[in-house]
């Protein structure tokens, strides 16, 4: 009696080679809002390319080796491409795109010290990368290059309009907010 053994092997079409691990080239990893970014996925033996983006996992396009789009700040994230054919599939390493914007929504907040001897000003802005700050008093620059400033409110020379200037080194945009301080009364 002859014994027959069947082995279940997945079918690979004879003319299909294994897909090579895809790689992504990009026009830039740091783009300004509304710039055009171009990503290209390269893989050997791929018949289909599918793009996806994290954090939401959205499929951006299929069967496109090149993805080109005007970026918004919500487009910041990790991108990858998946290359496939009937025999196999491979996913690229991720590439991170950061979209620069701002500064926007610049705000100066004032807070008096418990002893009422000084006032602390704090400046904030929405900006990627983070904004750099400097201060002006009545239009003249103060040698203070950070987001906070302390004012001795008992000194009459400190009375006036304080302006926080926020700058983004990538977008080259500047925005500001001002607050008037009456040094002798401490009123803002």
From TrEMBL:
Start and end residues of each Ig-like domain: 22-98, 103-182
Keyword Metal-binding among record annotations: no
Descriptive protein name: Ig-like domain-containing protein
A Pfam cross-reference name: Ig_2
Xref: InterPro entries: Ig-like_dom, Ig-like_dom_sf, Ig-like_fold, Ig_sub, Ig_sub2, IgSF_CEA-related
Keyword line: Disulfide bond, Glycoprotein, Immunoglobulin domain, Signal
SUPFAM superfamilies registered for this protein in UniProt: Immunoglobulin
């Amino acid at each position: 009696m002859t014994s027959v053994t069947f082995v279940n092997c997945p079918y690979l079409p004879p003319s299909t080679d294994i897909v090579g691990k895809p790689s992504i080239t990009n026009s830039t990893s740091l783009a300004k809002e509304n710039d055009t970014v171009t990503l290209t996925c390269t893989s050997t033996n791929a018949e289909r390319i599918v793009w996806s983006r994290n954090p939401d996992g959205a499929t951006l396009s299929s069967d496109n080796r090149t993805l080109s789009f005007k970026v918004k700040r919500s487009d910041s994230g990790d991108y990858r491409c998946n290359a496939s054919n009937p025999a196999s599939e491979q996913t690229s390493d991720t590439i991170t795109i950061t979209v620069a914007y701002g500064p926007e929504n610049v705000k100066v907040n004032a807070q008096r010290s418990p002893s009422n001897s000084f006032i602390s000003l704090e400046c904030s802005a929405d900006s990627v990368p983070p904004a750099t700050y400097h201060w002006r008093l009545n239009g003249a620059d103060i040698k203070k290059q950070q987001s906070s400033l302390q004012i001795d409110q008992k000194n009459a020379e400190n009375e006036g309009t304080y302006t926080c200037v926020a700058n983004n080194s990538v977008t080259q945009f500047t925005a500001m907010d001002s607050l008037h301080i009456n040094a002798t009364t401490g009123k803002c």
